[in-house]
Amino acid sequence: MSTKNLLKHIKVLTFDVHNVLLTVQNGAPNQYARLARQHLGIQSIDESLLRSNFVQAFRTLNTTHPGYGVNTNISSRQWWTLLIEYTFKE
């Protein structure tokens, strides 16, 4: 198959950049907590709960919507929105 024909069949291309091209200082949950304090005025955040929720949400979404939702009819933006919503649930 030629490269041109191959490219016609590609729907999404993702890169695993975590700790390869990018490093999130102190981890994503800590960044979420910092941004919630800074931009949303939410001061009382249990960071250990946030971290636990993040890990569980990431696992759940990778199971229910693998590949950031490419085959389950949600956009990658919806996937990340769900991740953030699940991370901040109480």
Question: Can you offer a commentary on this structure?
Answer:
The chain has 90 residues and is mostly helical. The protein has a single domain (3-88), classed as Haloacid dehalogenase-like hydrolase (DNA polymerase, domain 1). The protein is built from 4 helices and no strands. The termini are far apart. The model has no long low-confidence stretch (mean pLDDT 85). InterPro entries: HAD-like_hydrolase_domain, HAD-SF_hydro_IA_REG-2-like_cap.
Looking at this protein, list some descriptive labels.
90 residues, mainly alpha, DNA polymerase, domain 1, 4 helices, elongated
What's the arrangement of secondary structure elements?
Elements: H1 3-9, H2 28-40, H3 47-64, H4 76-88
Helix pairs in contact: 2-3, 3-4
Q: Which structural category fits the helices and strands?
A: mainly alpha
Q: Provide the residue-averaged pLDDT.
A: 85
Strand content: under 5%
Order of helices and strands: HHHH
Helix residue percentage: 55-70%
Q: CATH topology, which one?
A: DNA polymerase, domain 1
Instruction: Describe the largest sheet.
Output: none
- Full CATH superfamily name: Haloacid dehalogenase-like hydrolase
N-C termini distance: 50 Å
Number of strands: 0
Structure annotation, total helices: 4
Instruction: Give the low-confidence spans.
Output: none
How many discrete structural domains?
A: 1
CATH architecture: Orthogonal Bundle
Overall, the morphology is elongated
Rg over C-alpha atoms, rounded to the nearest angstrom: 16 Å
Oligomer category: single chain
**CATH class descriptor name:** Mainly Alpha
